[in-house]
Write a structure and sequence with these properties.
By secondary structure, this protein is mostly beta strands. The protein has one helix and ten strands. It is globular, with a radius of gyration of 21 Å.
């Protein structure tokens, strides 16, 4: 944030002190990678994430035309999840993986046979 102070015939710029949030800074500096397998899948989609410190991952599945799908998630351990996609029809889907605390919000494509 920059403040402009006007004096008599002169202009001065002063920078406001930066406020750091260590949680957000840490999450932005560490790479977050996701592995989806098998892709394409028939019954279950396995998800493995690189950051085991993230505790509140949320998942949403959408068809390619934007319809939200119902599904069940089973947490395997701190870094892997198993999603039951048996009830989904054959086609392409987007899975959105997000965590509001660390500001992760990413979408990945997978195919269901």
């Amino acid at each position: 944030m920059v403040f402009i102070l006007l004096g008599i015939g002169a202009m001065y710029a002063q920078q406001a002190p930066a406020v750091e949030n260590p949680t957000i800074k840490q999450s932005l500096t560490q790479p977050f990678t996701v592995e989806l397998f098998p892709n394409p899948t028939v019954d279950f989609l396995n998800i493995s994430v690189s950051d085991t410190e993230i505790k509140n991952l949320q998942f949403e599945i959408y068809s390619v035309i934007g319809n939200k799908q119902d599904f069940e998630v089973e947490k395997q351990d701190n870094a892997s999840y198993k999603i039951n996609v048996e009830a989904l029809k054959t086609g392409y889907y987007l899975i959105v993986i997000k965590d509001p605390v660390s500001r992760i919000d990413k979408a990945y494509k997978f195919r269901k046979f």
